[in-house]
TrEMBL record:
The keyword Transferase applies. Keywords: Cytoplasm, Schiff base, Transferase. Its EC number is 2.2.1.2. It is found in: Cytoplasm. It comes from the Bacteria. Signal peptide: none annotated. This is Transaldolase. One of its GO terms (molecular function) is transaldolase activity. It is an enzyme of class 2 (transferase). GO terms for cellular component: cytoplasm. The lineage of its organism: Bacteria, Bacillati, Bacillota, Bacilli, Bacillales.
Length: 221
């Protein structure tokens, strides 16, 4: 299972990439806009920070198929082969995914709310789909169930498309999708930092240190 950083903030990406075993970064137009920087400069800097071997996901903002394809090609040319183009699952987006598949460009179908959104995207040739767990739950849906059902459909259909569960507001939601067959999780830096925030760990480490220092080995060392 891959772990991605869901952020466009250089300092946050640097810290998480340095401290944790991550496989790449996902961005979206909202995250990019928050940074208030030139788009290409920012995504190239993210690429430099994480290195060329990790995955970098960049989203298009155009609405018509031709414009989405054009934008995707520009992003792809500006970066490298480990960039994946995120495209919302509109009808125009699905047509763009089909076209980009023919051109050998990797895509992630984003804004996935239902198993059938994911089915259509995978049929069109998307390499990844991103169910929006927290946003589904905000609509009184069950994010985890959507992930489970997508997994079942992909298994039944022998699709190789990977599920990147996205849109989290707490660690409980993340744990649930990990148990539900998600292939990848993309998580904001604040929540990745919470994975190891268990006060008992610190207390245990302190206790081990004190016990060691009291022992013969501790005195000799
Ligand atoms: C990632 O690919 C998505 O764009 C992101 O997780 C959405 O998260 P949000 O619902 O917290 O904005």
């Amino acid at each position: 299972m891959k772990l991605l950083i869901d952020s466009a903030n250089i300092e946050h990406i640097k810290q998480i990439n340095h401290d944790y075993p991550v496989d790449g970064v996902t961005t979206n137009p909202t995250l990019i806009a928050k940074e208030n920087r030139d788009f290409y400069q920012l995504i190239k800097e993210i690429r430099t920070v994480i290195g060329e071997s990790k995955l970098l996901f960049v989203q298009t903002v155009s609405e018509a198929t031709d414009a989405i394809v054009q934008e995707a090609l520009e992003i792809w040319k500006a970066l490298d082969k480990n960039v994946v183009i995120k495209i919302p699952v509109t009808v125009e987006g699905i047509k763009a995914i089909k076209e980009l598949k023919k051109q050998g460009i990797k895509t992630l179908a984003t804004t996935v709310y239902t198993p059938m959104n994911a089915f259509v995207a995978a049929k069109a040739g998307a390499d990844y789909v991103a169910p929006y767990v927290n946003r589904i739950e905000n609509l009184n849906g069950k994010g985890t169930e959507v992930v489970q059902e997508i997994k079942q459909i992909f298994t039944n259909a022998s699709f190789t498309c990977e599920i990147i569960s996205a849109s989290f507001k707490n660690v409980q939601q993340i744990k649930e999708v990990c148990l539900s067959g998600s292939d990848v999780i993309t998580v904001p830096p604040t929540l990745i930092n919470q994975f190891l925030q268990v006060s008992s760990i610190k207390e245990d480490v302190e206790r081990f240190k004190l016990d060691w220092q009291k022992s013969i080995q501790g005195k000799e060392g």
